[in-house]
Amino acid sequence: MKYVYELHKTMIANNLILVYEGEFTQDITKSILAMAERNMDAIGELGGVKRKVFSVMVECLQNIVKHSEELNEKDEDGLKNNAIFMLGKQINEYIVTSGNPIRNSAIPNVQAKIDRVNSLDKDGLKELYKEIIKNTEISEKGGAGLGFVDMARKSGEKLHYSFEPINDEYSFFALKIVVPRVE
Amino acid sequence: MEIINLEGTEETPKVILDKDNGIFEISGRSLPEDVRTFYQQILDWLDKYAAAPNPETKFTFKLEYFNTASSKMILDVLTKLEGISGAKVIWYHHDDDEDMEEAGKEFQDIVDGLPFEFKTY
Fold first, then answer.
1. Residue ranges of chain A with pLDDT lower than 70?
2. What pLDDT, on the 0 to 100 scale, is given for residue A77?
3. Three-state SS across A131-157?
4. Using beta carbons and an 8 Å cutoff, which residues of B are at the interface with A?
5. Size of interface A-B (CB pairs under 8 A)
6. Which among B49, B64, B42, B59 is positioned nearest to B19, based on CA atoms?
7. Per-residue pLDDT reduced to its tens digit, B81-119
8. CATH classification number, B4-120, choose in 3.30.750, 1.10.10, 1.20.120, 1.10.357
9. pLDDT for B19 beyond 80
10. For B31, which residue in chain A has the nearest alpha carbon?
């Protein structure tokens, strides 16, 4: 039972106020958002910061829901339930982190999208947003292809990511977005 | 013409589309799992309304939050409104919500044939 205490200490050491590991659905997304909102309300967080954290969380969580569904359909044992979502709170910033398995074949596309977003400044992101929204169609999975652009715009920071190999077919995609606690 | 009157939830906005009383409003939060199904009923209603619209259509958007998938569907609603003569958007944003104000201005830039009026609440 020592791991309980170890996990507790790890969470405190990393200032994690919310950690969820498991299956991701729209209902779970709503519950996670409600918990984060309550937590931010309880400490009287600034309205603007709260809205930005909420936005980044929604895009991040809905991304996972879409990807985990794909794995669920394939019934990949041991892979389908291992997405993780974390919210950390430091003195000057919130840190939204997610991790989920993705197909190795999908990596170049995801990486290119994030690298493009990270190469742009505020005005560049605004133009990219307009370009995508004008030309996009809602995908079968219900996305508009605007998630990463919106995360970068709302946070005002670069998106951090990594891909850790799991096996020949899958890698673990970790994404971190920092939201400054200033308006 | 039929009235659409949907109560808002934590993931879907309140929607009122009432031709006879001249009320056209989408307000609250929009982050449904299936944005297409939710917004399709609004787009379908607007298609019917466009065949015989009121002389004036003041369409109120008073959104607290919408996700990126919803933003695409909102653009589709605005594009439909652009084709209705006498249509105008009243875009509300909370007085300290610059992102929501900017989102409205971006829609205004894209749908440039549709008049926008900005208000705070």
1. 68-81, 183
2. 55
3. HHHHHCCCCCCCCCCCHHHHHHHHHCC
4. 10-11, 31, 33-36, 65, 67-69, 71-73, 75, 94, 96-99, 106, 109-110
5. 68
6. B49
7. 999 999 999 999 999 999 999 999 999 999 999 999 999
8. 3.30.750
9. yes
10. A58
